[in-house]
Fold each of these.
Amino acid sequence: MRGEHAVATNVRINGQRLWDSLMEMAKIGATEKGGNCRLALTDLDRQGRDLFVRWCREAGCTVTVDKIGNIFARRPGKDNSLPPVMTGSHLDTQPTGGKFDGVYGVLAGLEVIRTLNDTGSETAAPIEVAVWTNEEGSRFAPAMVASGVFGGVFDLDYALSRADTEGKTMGEELRRIGYAGEAEVGGRAVGAFFEAHIEQGPILEAERKTIGVVQGVQGIRWFEITLTGQEAHAGPTPMRRRKDALVGSSRIVGQVNRIGLDNLPYACATVGMMQVFPNSRNVIPGRVFFTVDFRHPDAKVLAGMATELEKACHDVADDLGLVLDFKEIWYSPPVTFAPECVAAVKGAATELGFAHLDIISGAGHDAVYVSRVAPTAMVFVPCENGISHNEIENATPQDLAAGCDVLLRAMLARANAAPAA
Ligand SMILES: [Zn+2]
């Protein structure tokens, strides 16, 4: 048994075939600037799904679709009572999306199966490739909704009733394109889940590393803050008599930035939106509304950042005689991936001789929700200038192949691991 499995670890995926498949998929919904537009549950999404399903059937897989349209292509193992080792990502894109975000993780999974077929390799546990519906959240909010149902985060009915701007629901659109499946969503054991993805950030490229060994995903806290002072004429009102809401807000923006810098290397702190009332050049601003986005992989540090922000807001408001309205509107807790899956990714990168780096994901992924119900990890590969959610998104065939080789090896390690007692 051991010897047989050792043979498979010398196997390499076919990088050219992976690249060709990516380019073939990219023809569906191709945009002028070289990107892709395949919004969830549109006709173009259906064409992308149909192509994937056809490829999987040609590779000998059985294909199952669940009630929220997630697709699972399964390659049997020697012992089909074992829970599958799963990989996958999403085929939907942003309106001006790229050729690799999500698609890479799906087609890397297909390439793993094709490679196992080429070499006649058997795995102990079955292998599955998943396509998660509506990851982007661009047509139907929220993002990652279907992997969220699988992970027990959202109810099925909630997800099916999500509507686009024209009032069309996910349920209606799934039926229309023929992907309202029969299978229950989740509720079954998954031995391990691995998602390969482009980094969507600049770190791997800057550090000249081929593989990102993803440790987890940052937690996020969102705040909405309103400071109210008093509008007054910019001329006759002496400086010391003013209640200037924008002066207060500016001080808080400085504090937000300082809190981010104080919690490096992982903290991110951003004021991305600000509305000034009445926004007139000769009126002292009487009211300012702004948002704060805090991110950190450690829940305690993130909570500490929030406490500091609230204190800073009160201090500024007191100092300037402003009225403060401070609300936390969203908290997405940090995710720490399963040590045995992270170790499988790191081990694979090391054994294959790829330069690699431990990294934290700054963006959300389907793996976040799947990690609620299955031991999970991710493999990142660099993307050009760290740019994603953009038609010019790019990655090299070599890096994509390297990530897929790591994925194959990590999946084999888990699929052939002795089942837990
Ligand atoms: Zn993605």
Note: The longest helix spans residues 299-320.
Amino acid sequence: MLVVVNKLARIKVRGVVQGVGFRPFVYRLAHQYKLNGWVRNTSGSVTIEVEGDEAAIKGFSASLETGAPPMARIEGVSLSFHAPQGYTGFEIRDSRPERGKYQLVSPDIATCPDCLRELLDPDDRRYGYPFTNCTNCGPRFTIIEDIPYDRPKTTMAGFHMCPECQREYDDPLDRRFHAQPNACPRCGPRLELVSADGTLTESRDVIKATDDLTESRDVMKATDDLTESEDLIKAAGDLLRDGRILAVRGLGGFQLACDATSETAVATLRRRKRRPAKPLAVMMATREEIVRHCELSPEEERLLSSPQCPIVLLRWRRGVSCVAAAVAPNLKYLGVMLPYTPLHHLLLRETGRPLVMTSGNLSEEPIARDNDEALGRLKGIADYFLVHNRSISARYDDSVFMMVDEAPQPIRRARGYAPYPIFLPFRSKQVLACGAEEKNTFCLTRDDHAFLSQHIGDMENEETLAHFENTIELYKRLFRVTPEVVAYDLHPEYLATKYARRVISELGLLAVPVQHHHAHIASCLAEHKAEGPAIGVAFDGTGFGSDAALWGGEFLLADYNGFHRLGHLEYVPLPGGAAAIKRPYRMALSYLYTLLGADFPLEGLPLDGLDPEEVAVVKKQLARGINSPPTSSAGRLFDAVSALAGVRGRIDYEAQAAIELEMQAPDKIDRMKKETYPFAVTLEQGVRVVRLAELVSAVVREVRNRVPVPLISLRFHRTVAEMITGVCRDIAGETGINEVALSGGVFQNRLLLMLTTSALKKAGLAVLVHRLVPCNDGGISLGQAVIANFAGRS
Ligand SMILES: [Zn+2]
Ligand SMILES: [Zn+2]
Ligand SMILES: [Zn+2]
């Protein structure tokens, strides 16, 4: 006779296992394996006790990882055996917080196929309901105020579930079991449509007040909730088709929407938002719609339709697409995303055309979050506000990616990604790294987690600083981090640096100042779990150097402990500081007068038409060194060549001159002759300095000879790639280190990245490029955090 000996196993599962349908999955799995016991959320993990046959327990435990629901991310499963308790069934127990413990928080997730089906099914009770969600999708991070993740600690606390929602919520076999944001038209959040001059009024009044919406007036008389929401979407669609600008309250803040096919609507939005040229993102209803406007590779399609649902920069079929040229002036790429909330799905289907969907803010302010805030701040921009009454806990911009070598590369990391951590190759201290000025993020570390914040924004105003400080407090609370060390950029004027200095002196914490480009390289190493030392190529706009010059074309031998500057582009003055960044022709003048002679003639160059007075001012600044800090910035070299070639002399957004120069390069470069411009490398006290006089003079000659700009652009890009490869090969030969990490905002330039990577590989060097965090300053805080972890260790 077979004797079955029952065993009891206690299992702990770590990772993103809360708010993602993990407990119902465990419940079903326990039934499948005929095991008794319970499952419970704790602050740090999910704890399970199962009792039964040992083989069944092992099968159960293995299935926890292999069969987990789509949004769960398992970090580790531990199992120990104990004396059996004689459980008679399997149950889901209440959550239990534990002091000091924390859990990973799921990012917000795009509407899942099941919810989309219900949304569009006239027979479903959630038909047309813009806040439909389930355990596999919907808001998470943006509604969580504290852990453990239960409804009372979310911004859904104020909504009381109706009996039907409650039944779903309580049924372990339901897709909405313990879905904290669960809601329906009877009990959940509701939409309102408000005109720009009204306060939050009854939607019906607003519709009545609008002359050109007379048709919908009758419909608005319908009284039940469902029809109301349907009619609001209809009215919003009418407004959008009519060229109006709508502020739409989304997941992590307001977005500004308008008809992307209307030049007039887009121009109006640009004028009101004070954003003359920076490209705008477009939302398209379906994959079929996207391929009408853009080229789409299988990898791009996978990324676009992933649960993270980011904006992806796609090759724009400008000749075919009816998306307005003003959406992305002078660019070959369009930032496109699919709808990621039910509200977006409804709006896109109703409007029947692509919509511009851009952050709801004025120029560089943070994205507006609350209704009153939006009505105040976006008043001059939006004609109407499509709002709802579910509060947003965390501001959360859309993430942006581009595809490089068939793999995604982040440009902005926010919705769908933060606050999921980057995993570190070591056990870390509790560190706060404050990041840089532009595209700021911060980073908190503990255990092997680096909690890199969502994109905060450009730290240029009080609003962004407040957003930064509040979000730091939120992360500290959610992940139970009490920093002992604070890392910050060397630049004394960065608001993030000033904040760091303040908290360091107030709380008596350990201060670790980190050089900007060292942080860039460390961030690239850290995301690859590479410890270095590696040859770091940090090419960006500008960052404060250890010698107080503005660096930005750097070759560093770096690891987490420190760096040696082994090479850089030669210094030229930045005439007028910030003025030279906004007006690239000033940089062109600086290169000409510094490298080719103080009286270099401008004849035959696009610079010839410049205001002679300003040219005289620049000359004086250069001659006397007034407000002209020396810089080795690669970004400024791109600016100068762009201005010299007549592509762009003034910019409306960061890096515009360099981006448009890249866009000028021909598409089929393989067939072109591999021509480059000359440059020299000199060795000064062991440091390689890339001399640029010959390069600048060659560009001048080509411009004067009317060589087509696409050729100049291509030759220049090839020259920079050759320059990087040559210096790296030399350093590798000298040091025996042949791993190269590429970082800094200049590597958002696809052409340069592609040319550089392939040349480095051809030279026998291994290349690391960013895949998890942005190569721009959005990745800086991760680098600062890992460096701070090693400060004082060796
Ligand atoms: Zn769903
Ligand atoms: Zn309900
Ligand atoms: Zn930088």
Note: The radius of gyration is 28 Å.
